[in-house]
Amino acid sequence: MFDHPSYDHHEGVHFFEDADSGLRAIIAVHSTARGPAAGGCRMWQYETGEQALRDALRLSQGMSFKNAMAGLPLGGGKAVIWGNSKTDKSPKLFEAFGRAIESLNGAYYTAEDVGVDTDDMAVVATQTKYVAGLDTGEAASGDPSPVTALGVYRGIKSCAKRVFGTDDLSGRTIAVQGVGSVGGYLCDHLAKEGARLYVCDIDEEELAKVCARTGATRIKTDEIYDVDAEIFSPNALGAVINRATLPRLKAKIIAGGANNQLASPDMDSAVREAGILYAPDYVINGGGIINVAAEISGAYSRNWVIGKLNVLIDTLGEVLDDALQNNLPTNRVAERIARERISAAKNG
Ligand code: NAD
Fold first, then answer.
1. Rounded CA gap, 330 and 181, in Å?
2. What is the pLDDT of residues 75-98, one digit of tens each?
């Protein structure tokens, strides 16, 4: 475990199994230096336990960086439930997951991620108070996806300004991979501004809905990398920017909501050398955790959320400018700032 390539000094990695409900979950706590670790819970049918562990570790480290970049008093953690979110869910399973979180005594707060929704979080909340993204309750913040999508939309505009000299997206061609919660709301913003959208998803129903309301052109999932689009926006799963996909992209900008978009750390240089401006995922997609943080603070305020989102978009702009001026990969600049902020909290 300690030699795992994605371990990166995690403070704790916790494995839970509940035979009654079939729960198998990993909760990874990367850092609590800035506050309790916070990050969503993903339910996914991994092929192996090693894949589940790797995902938990990478996502949890990403949350440390994301919370630091969003200026939140939170550390980084993430949970993964190993299972099929369409067929394996039950109240018993999420109750067992809630008990697992409670056993960590507040070191980790959970919320929604891929495959997990507000109904599931309501069940978790029957067993623990360390849960956010709820629909009911005094400070309830609900689904974080609309705020994530708003941040991604504004982040895309920020990139466009630097690459095209204007943040106006009308007439811009944008390929959107994944039109679930984040991708769907994002398409609404982009369509409203008059962007020309090319979209794909493995979920035919979601795809049909988004195409119907935005006028987007549907693309086969394996052909999305070949679309002649100026902007590529990944909003499905991670590792989609890799040695095989990068040469196929014609876009000048990669900016989307998905976590862990770069398949390996060296892809940050490869993307830069390909002349593409990459918006670091854990910066551009921080809107959702800002919304969740408002709930964790105990007093939800939409004004506070929008204020934090404004600062985050400014921070993204600073990362992009620093990288462009100094010929550095954007991800490297963002990671340096995030690690500095975490170290400052640890030492302060
Ligand atoms: P979601 O499950 O609602 O949507 C994901 C979509 O991607 C689904 O419609 C799914 O069918 C589709 N998909 C899966 N594999 C695909 C493939 N190979 N090609 C095309 N489409 C595919 O999840 P979401 O909440 O929208 O999250 C999307 C991404 O954004 C994830 O990486 C998540 O970790 C990240 N993210 C989400 C939030 C949030 O607020 N929900 C916040 C930050 C980051």
1. 26
2. 999 999 999 999 999 999 999 999
Fold annotation for 145-286+315-339: Rossmann fold (3.40.50)
Residue 78 annotated among the catalytic residues of the structure:
yes
Query: pLDDT per residue over 258-273, tens digit each?
Result: 999 999 999 999 999 9
pLDDT at position 143 is 87
Quote the CA–CA distance of 111 and 140 in Å, as a whole number.
11
Q: Report yes or no: 199 and 211 within 8 Å, Cβ to Cβ.
A: yes
User: Across-strand partners of 77?
Assistant: 29
**Active site residue: 78, 89, 157, 252, which one?**
78
Mutate to test the pocket of ligand 1, among 80, 113, 209, 211 (most ligand atoms within 8 A of CB): 113
| Each residue's pLDDT tens digit, 112-123 | 998 999 999 999
Q: Is the pTM of this model over 0.90?
A: yes
CA 328-256-231 angle, to 5 degrees, is 80
Atom of ligand 1 nearest to the CA of 200: 20
12-61+76-124 — its CATH code? 3.40.50.10860
Ligand 1 binding pocket includes 294 (Cβ within 6 Å): no
Span(s) in the chain for CATH 3.40.50.10860: 12-61+76-124
